[in-house]
Design goal:
Layout: H1 6-14, H2 22-31, E1 40-47, E2 59-63, E3 74-77, H3 81-89, E4 93-95, H4 97-106, E5 113-116, H5 121-124, H6 128-131, H7 149-158, E6 160-164, E7 170-177, H8 182-198, E8 209-216, E9 222-223, H9 227-230
Parallel strand pairs: 3-4, 3-5
Antiparallel strand pairs: 1-7, 1-8, 2-6, 8-9
Amino acid sequence: MAKHGKLYRDARSRIEEREYDLDEAVTLLREVKRPNFVESVDISIRLGVDPKYPEQNVRGTVVLPHGTGREVRVLVIAAGEKIKEAEDAGADHVGGEEIVEKIRTENWFDFDTVVTTPDMMRHVGKLGKLLGPKGLMPSPKAGTVTFNLKETVAEIKKGRVEFKVDKTGIINSSVGKMDFDDTRIADNVRSFAQAVLKARPASLKGRYVRSMYLSTTMSPGVKLSLQEFER
């Protein structure tokens, strides 16, 4: 087992083994001594689902009200008039079959997310082995395979994030930066949590959310009380 450093151990000693209200948790994270860089604020939600069943493979998207705190580079793969629509929407890179070839032959990944139109999926599908392992493959369920490029690109730039339960039943995501004020962090956490709650599988029996933790890039997790999210 890896040994944690002095800063981590000090932070761990200041976090009690109990559930914290959201506002209280954000305040505590500020009090924990941190490295000399702006850390991300991360959320981890353990669900009572079994992802091996397709109907319990929870996923979705949410537009965080205050964004993620980082610039997202958007690649749009489209053709015809949709090229201009994507450019006007503010996409960082736009192209058609030629950009698919650029990724395939040059191992080019100067982007953070990929959006494509349904008619281009026959070309984008060739990139499955390259984009899939990096979590970049467009998907209709994630809203990244669409003809509505204007709205989709705008939402991603504003702070839309995708969430998906992993094979252990946990959803992890960044929900902001520590240079956000407390209100913006709390707003983003509430929006993210509510989106996950709304994605509850209809067929699921029993408890849906088992636990929820908030942390920074380098800090231990602070366990959140679920009461305010479930009422």
